[in-house]
Design brief:
With about 170 residues, this protein is of the alpha+beta class. The chain is built from 4 helices and 7 strands, in the order ββββαααβαββ. A hairpin with a 2-residue loop joins strand 2 and strand 3. The protein binds cytidine-5'-monophosphate and magnesium ion (MG).
């Protein structure tokens, strides 16, 4: 069966609080003054990416597979979550190739551009694609939303998933 191209989109946000680690794209942001309040590790970028992957194949969202009330979700690392999403999709889609990924993270502090290469490298490793196919952009909220971190992700993926003509 021939692969089809599918676009996916995902979004996530978490409140920020002191004495919490901040994880973004599977990378710990060591100089962050605050981190995400969450049952999992609160990696908004990975959560948005996971939802983008699921949406591409009409497979709902991460809450449907990992309810926040589930103890198994507690402290779940973003990288581990993404691996499990890939396991969930594999039986219905087959091998998935990521054509490219475009992410935007909105956060006022700290500046994230020093972490761009680390995040890009980590995401490219997790998705087994070249770093040149991964772009991570950063925006401040201009002080309008200083107490949260938000991520939005678009992916273009190829696979022989549901909806394949013929
Ligand atoms: O939000 P704003 O347009 O003012 O951001 C200017 C630039 O600052 C962005 O293009 C981005 O490269 C960088 N930035 C950053 N870390 C953030 C927010 C923005 O490095 N947390
Ligand atoms: Mg989240």
């Amino acid at each position: 069966m021939e692969d089809v191209l599918r676009v996916g989109f995902g979004e996530d946000a978490h409140r920020l609080a002191a004495e919490r680690p901040l994880w973004l794209g599977g990378v710990a942001i060591a100089d962050a003054p605050r981190g995400a309040v969450a049952h999992s590790d609160g990696d908004a970028l990975i959560h948005a990416l996971a939802d983008a992957m699921l949406s591409a194949w009409g497979a709902g969202d991460i809450g449907g597979y990992f309810p926040p009330s589930d103890p198994a979700y507690r402290g779940l690392a973003g990288a581990e979550l993404l691996g499990r999403i890939q396991e969930i999709l594999h039986p219905r889609v087959g091998p998935i190739h990521t054509v490219n990924l475009a992410a935007v993270v909105t956060l006022d502090h700290p500046r994230l551009h020093p972490h761009r290469d680390a995040i890009r490298t980590r995401l490219s490793g997790l998705l087994a694609v070249a770093p040149t196919r991964v772009n991570v952009a950063f925006k401040t909220s201009e002080g309008l939303a200083p107490d949260h971190v938000q991520a939005r992700v678009t992916v273009l993926v190829a696979g022989a998933g549901p909806g394949t003509p013929g």
